[in-house]
Specification:
CATH superfamily: 2,3-Dihydroxybiphenyl 1,2-Dioxygenase, domain 1
Number of domains: 1
Number of strands: 15
Radius of gyration: 16 Å
Largest sheet: 8 strands, mixed
CATH architecture: Roll
Strand order of the largest sheet: 2-3-4-1-12-15-14-13
Shape: globular
Distance between the termini: 18 Å
Order of helices and strands: EHEEEEEEEHEEEEHEEEH
CATH class: Alpha Beta
Length: 225
C-alpha cells in the first residue's frame, strides 16, 4: 500500500459535543486542529495525536442503534510517562495514554475484539498489506492494529453509530488502493466518492465488518482529486 501518511486515523461518533471536546482536549490533552462538515448533520472535530488524527464526529440527530464496532480501545503514546494511564470518555469508549515503546507502540494502537484471529491475520497482512509486528499485531507506518481479544462481534452495515466506528488510512491513490484491496479479498463498505475539493474516499470492511476509510486527501497528496 502506497501511504500518503505513515499514521492511521480513528473516527468515533457522539451526540455529546461539549463533553467529548472537553475530554479529548483537556483530559487526554490532544491539540485541536479544526472542524469540518461531513454531511448528514455531522460536524467532524479533528484532533492531533502523534501524527494521527482523532476524528470526533458530532451528530446533531440521533445515531443509528447499531451494534458496537470491534474497536474496543485506543492507546496513545505520551512522552514522559512511566506507566499507562487508563481513561474512559463520556460515552464509555476506552483510551489509554502509554509510554513510548510500550508493547511496541510508537504513535497509537487501535485495539480490536475479533471473531476469528486467523481471518484477521489474512486480512491485515494480505488484503491491507500491513506489516505483521507480532502475533495479532499489524503495523501501518508507526500505527498498530492490535487483536486484543477474541469474542463476539456483530456485523453491522452502519459505519455511523455510537462510539469508535472506523479507522482511516491515507493513500496517494484512493481508487487504486480500494480496487487492490477488493482484488486481494477485502469487501466494500462504500464505493469511492469525492467530498468537494478536499478528499476522495472509499470504505472497505475487515472480516467483522469494521469500516476502514481509504482516503486520498488533497492537503496530503496535492493536485486534483
Amino acid at each position: 500500500m502506497n501511504l500518503a501518511k505513515p499514521h492511521l486515523d480513528v473516527g468515533l461518533f457522539s451526540n455529546k459535543r461539549n463533553e467529548q471536546l472537553a475530554f479529548w482536549q483537556q483530559t487526554v490533552g490532544l491539540p485541536y486542529d479544526h472542524m469540518g462538515k461531513v454531511g448528514g448533520g455531522v460536524q467532524q472535530h479533528r484532533h492531533h495525536m502523534n501524527g494521527s488524527i482523532l476524528k470526533m464526529n458530532h451528530a446533531r440527530g440521533s445515531l443509528p442503534d447499531a451494534a458496537p464496532s470491534g474497536i474496543i480501545g485506543l492507546e496513545i503514546v505520551r512522552d514522559g510517562l512511566l506507566a499507562p494511564q487508563a481513561m474512559t470518555d463520556p460515552d464509555g469508549n476506552k483510551v489509554s495514554l502509554v509510554p513510548l515503546g510500550a508493547q511496541g507502540v510508537r504513535g497509537i494502537a487501535i485495539l480490536l475484539r475479533v471473531n476469528d484471529p486467523a481471518a484477521h491475520d489474512r486480512f491485515w497482512t494480505h488484503a491491507m498489506q500491513f506489516e505483521r509486528a507480532g502475533e495479532g499485531r499489524y503495523r501501518c507506518g508507526d500505527s498498530l492494529i492490535v487483536v486484543a481479544e477474541r469474542g463476539l462481534v456483530e456485523r453491522s452495515p452502519e459505519w455511523r453509530g455510537p462510539g469508535y466506528r472506523y479507522t482511516t488510512v491515507q493513500v496517494w491513490d484512493c481508487l487504486a488502493e480500494y480496487e487492490g484491496i477488493l482484488v486481494r479479498g477485502g469487501t466494500s463498505g462504500g464505493a469511492p466518492r469525492v467530498l468537494g475539493d478536499t478528499v476522495r474516499f472509499a470504505f472497505v470492511c475487515d472480516p467483522d465488518g469494521n469500516h476502514i476509510e481509504i482516503s486520498q486527501r488533497a492537503s496530503l497528496t496535492g493536485g486534483t482529486l
